[in-house]
Amino acid sequence: MLVVKFGGTSVGKPERMKKIAHLVMSMPGKKIVVLSALSGTTNALVRIGENLLAQQHTAANNEISELEKHYLQFIKELYSSESYKAVGEEIVSRYFSLFRLLAAGKFDDRGYRELLAQGELISTELFYHHLQEIKTPVRLLPALHFMSIDENNEPELEKISERLKPILETMNNVDILVTQGYICRNHRNEIDNLKRGGSDYTASLIGAAIRAEEIQIWTDIDGMHNNDPRIVKKTMPIAELTFDEASELAYFGAKILHPSTIVPAQKYHVPVILKNTMDEKALGTIISDKGSRGQFKAVAAKDGITAIKIKSSRMLLAYGFLRRVFEVFERYKTPIDMISTSEVAVSVTIDENKNLAKILEELNLFGTIEVDDNQSIICIVGNMLSEKEGVLKEVFQSLANIPIRMVSYGGSPNNISILVSTSQKDKALNLLNEGLFNL
Ligand code: ASP
Ligand code: MG
After folding, report:
1. Which ligand 1 atom is nearest residue 198's CA?
2. Per-domain residue ranges for the chain?
3. How far is CA 329 from the centre of its chain?
4. Ligand 1 pocket test: which of 39, 48, 196 has the largest number of ligand atoms within 8 Å of its C-beta?
5. Beta strands of 244-294 (E only): which ranges?
6. Which residues line ligand 1 (CB under 6 A)?
7. Which residues contact 131 (CB under 8 A, 6 or more apart)?
8. Which residue among 38, 110, 323, 358 is least crowded, i.e. fewest CB within 10 A of its CB?
9. How far apart are CA 245 and CA 412, in angstroms?
């Protein structure tokens, strides 16, 4: 069984939705198709929900009417026959009645989450009827009947798997099952979601739950790239990544994949393939257990980093010093990203400044503090980089003219992190592109 996920832009126009219908029909064997909401819909629902929470009813109702117009036009172009256009109108009218009902009553966080879930419910229903119209056997697999999160908002993979089994058995006479990305039930059985961009995560959870052959994530770019195309001129798609490399990149803002997506797939060794709906033949990126060792795969950067240096002679030959420093960050629920130490000083970086003033006040008791803001972490990702000779030489040679504030190497075999001032970031990414990838 394949799990095949299409994002908002892949279903955002009637012709695109028709195109992916053909794409799915051309795939051999059984598949579960996971769909996002049509592009722009979740953003519109967020705006409507926020307006309602703020008692801005007129703004919310105007936005609902705008969105309704968009859907009425969409179904006109999606369906060919009068009878299916009527089915489409019935669907749109049913969802928009619900929006108006939710908007008219007491609107709270629970109503908000119910509203957000409608984007995926409507896109899958429209797609399902399109397949019906072109006489392709298909079933709807309702995500709210099996997808769940616990009280810590963590997906319940084992339960999801248990619930899916009997449902899938009853549907084993059709090859195409269509389900909603992003939406789920929480531990109170209320409608909830897996956070923005969560449809990728849905696909990975289903893939892991049913031990699928493959999870395909279809977007509108040809896989993950080796560098940030907004900053460097020439980038290339990465053919193969290990799960660990992909998680490093997802954290470092390679926006193409929801950061948690890798976790369930990795647990059950189900390969994740990133594919491009605009260029079906392109190979895309394969993320799996396999990987080539000692090779640079990609560089990525994360901005908005603050570096804090704590210098203290009390650190010399002492133990327990780092613990006390880390406890300060723990008290203010502030994660530390990079660390580097000398005998009398330690530098750490954080990307969350909310409690910085209080943190500094406490750290001041340990010694002298220096703070550098507007820093960027440049992360160099590859497999077994720490086992390869000359890796650091290549990196530092490329960055010879860039002042480097911190380095972290060997923490993981997949990553070298370097801290530079954000003003140097573009230059650093370009130099690494030339030095490590000859681009
Ligand atoms: N529709 C949701 C969003 O826009 C989930 C997704 O597209 O992955 O965030
Ligand atoms: Mg996405």
Report:
1. 8
2. 2-220, 298-437
3. 26
4. 196
5. 272-276, 285-288
6. 7-8, 36-37, 42, 119, 181-182, 196-199
7. 21, 138, 176, 178
8. 323
9. 10
Ligand 1 centroid to residue 265 C-alpha, Å: 19
pLDDT digit of tens for each residue in the chain (439 aa)? 999 999 999 999 999 999 999 999 999 999 999 999 999 999 999 999 999 999 999 999 999 999 999 999 999 999 999 999 999 999 999 999 999 999 999 999 999 999 999 999 999 999 999 999 999 999 999 999 999 999 999 999 999 999 999 999 999 999 999 999 999 999 999 999 999 999 999 999 999 999 999 999 999 888 889 999 889 999 999 999 999 999 888 877 666 788 789 999 999 999 999 999 989 888 899 999 987 766 899 999 999 999 999 998 877 777 888 999 999 999 999 999 999 999 889 999 999 999 999 999 999 999 999 999 999 999 999 987 777 788 899 999 999 999 999 999 888 888 999 999 999 999 999 999 999 999 8
Q: From CA 67, how far away is CA 89, in angstroms rounded?
A: 14
Q: Say if residues 332 and 411 touch (Cβ distance below 8 Å).
A: no
298-437 maps to CATH 3.40.50.300: no
CATH ID of 2-220, from 3.40.640.10, 3.40.50.10950, 3.40.1160.10, 3.40.190.10: 3.40.1160.10
Q: How far is the CA of 8 from the centre of ligand 1 (A)?
A: 7
SS (HEC) of 335-348: CEEEEEECCCEEEE
